[in-house]
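pasting input
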Amino acid sequence: GAVVSQHPSRVICKSGTSVKIECRSLDFQATTMFWYRQFPKQSLMLMATSNEGSKATYEQGVEKDKFLINHASLTLSTLTVTSAHPEDSSFYICSASQGAPGEAFFGQGTRLTVV
Amino acid sequence: KNQVEQSPQSLIILEGKNCTLQCNYTVSPFSNLRWYKQDTGRGPVSLTIMTFSENTKSNGRYTATLDADTKQSSLHITASQLSDSASYICVVSATGNQFYFGTGTSLTVIP
């Protein structure tokens, strides 16, 4: 099956710094990538949808200047958490789609801890 | 409003026993429904995917059912194992690549 690789799996950063998370589709071209955030014991919450070569579409309440998303190629999307604060500590997950309806392959997730 | 509700919220069963998880949805227009297993600290892994015309689909010890008329789905786990302990998430997609997530059922299998 299709494989989505997310890196890093865990990251600890100091408050005020920026962190970049990568999401790669290893064996297929992802026309669309999704970024989610998941707080403990809660469901996945969609943050933004990105299509290759165009600007990401952010969900209501998600600050686009704080969570920078780049989808520069069909196999790579990045999420940069800028000026991270402790409340940004969460589990971030990406998923990728080739375009087939309802298709989503998930990455392994990134545990971000801001201290 | 497009919603996905799962029940129970949590479940504890003995190893070897069967269990059934429920998913009710109001998503429209419906494209498909997936069940995912999410281990703690990991991304979700797809178990089954069902389209409008499919009533049941199996993947090993996992069997999913779908009633598109009543907009209900279930995931039945047979002969549970300790490794089945995880969160099970029902995801319904609408046309246009819109995904709606249930809040998940936390399953704990005890020896």
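fyi Chain A touches chain B at residues 1, 4, 6, 32, 34, 41-46, 49, 91, 93, 95, 97, 101-102, 104-109, 111 (CB under 8 Å).
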